[in-house]
TrEMBL record:
It is found in: Cell membrane. Pfam families: CstA (PF02554). The keyword Cell membrane applies. This is CstA N-terminal domain-containing protein. It comes from Facklamia languida CCUG 37842. GO terms for cellular component: plasma membrane. The chain crosses the membrane at residues 6-24, 60-78, 84-106, 127-147, 159-181, 188-209, 229-248, 269-292, 312-342, 363-382, 388-408, 415-434, 440-465. Residues 7-170 form the CstA N-terminal domain. Belongs to the peptide transporter carbon starvation (CstA) (TC 2.A.114) family. InterPro entries: CstA (IPR051605), CstA_N (IPR003706). GO terms for biological process: cellular response to starvation. Keywords: Cell membrane, Membrane, Transmembrane, Transmembrane helix. It is a multi-pass membrane protein.
Amino acid sequence: MKMISLLGGIGLLIIGYVIYGRFIEANFQIEPDRKTPAEVLRDNMDFVPMPRWKNAIIELLNIAGTGPIFGPIMGALYGPVAYVWIVIGCIFGGAVHDYMIGMISLRNNGAHLPELTSKYIGKPVKHVVNIFAIILLLLVGTVFVISPANLISNFTPSWLSVGMITGLIFIYYFVSTFLPIDKTMGKIYPIFGAILIVSTVAIGIMLLFQGKPLPELTSANLYLENVNGTPIFPALFFTVSCGALSGFHATQSPMVARTMKSEKGGRPVFYGMMIGEGVIAMIWAAASMTLFDGQTLSQLIAQGTPSAVVNQVSYMLLGSVFGFLAILGVIVLPISSGLSAFRSLRNIVAEYIHLPQNKIRNVLILTIPIFVISFILTLMDFNALWRYFNWANQVTAVISLFVSTRYLRLKGRNFMVTLIPGIFMLYACVVYILSEPIGLNLGLTPLCYGLSLAVSLGLLGLLYYTGSHKIQELPSDSPLLNDHLPITTPNT
């Protein structure tokens, strides 16, 4: 039975980790003996040293959500070409993006993306990034409440409505936000991680032996549009985001950077877990394409959310008992990512308005409004939320790649590794917002493509101009000397 595209793609992801991951690490120039924020700024709340394996599990669950499952399911509507974006995007875009932001944060007191943007690109851009980060995390948290609630409702009593399940998830998030990171994520996530890994491996193994031929990437099925007639550019690069390149990850890596003991953990934790997410995406894309034809898959997704596909795939491949366990593996992803999204959002807002989070009163001041707004957003159409989330997500990825580019340029390193994917996604983001109904609704016309090129070149010129004065200002990377960043003072 042919399975070259799936197994070959997974093999390339692993090779990418070994070879290109080492290149990226060498280009960054780690210092294994450098003290980390977890040691220097320990507060037993957010800055807490944890073992590398726990950091890896937390990073994987933080960045994953339903993105590497729902995204590839919808990306499967384009056929096997989705494999190409997952593999190339993951190795040269997503994993590099995650590694760079995680390591730059590690060198800057565990600072979040807005503060890193302020330092390396400029203070005016910081306000824009704060707005995008807040919107993105609100959308992420909301999407990652709706999707597990829909999945759970499929096998709970009828009296337990989706609304009630949504409320219970919010209660779990609310309680968890008050607890130290090592007492919540450090204790619960290893269990969640085990469920995810076992269920993903089970789906992958049964997919190989289920009797149907797996779709192979050939010139004949290299489609330029999906079954609904949507062109591959730029839609595919927003549909499959978390499994290839996702700005949401830039809001999560700094959280893990605050718990790392050594810079040596950067490649397995940041680069490696993105590769792991790519493997998850490959398996779910393959399962969706193998078990359903394009029209059937499209109809299942149109019934509500891709959760319908998750249920069908799990039960078809694993039966009722193990299929239920596989669905649990999918449920833990958005619940864990939703929790981390709201925690990151609270910290980013706190840093922006300079409100220390060392008192319960201050935590409540931010947490309650965040959850109220998110609950209101749950009343919106899921598909509309997903489109807004995708665009805000990839804009944040572009900003993160340009922050990384500026950092590498300041340090005299190879900055093309982040600039090239950054330019590509910048153009895709501009085309998307100018062509889609959520933007100017110009459609994919020559006017849209030309105007997008002009806007992209203008933004690149602005990026170059704003950084010209910084070249002589090599900023300190020392956590002890970098106290000009408005990081919350640890409890003493």
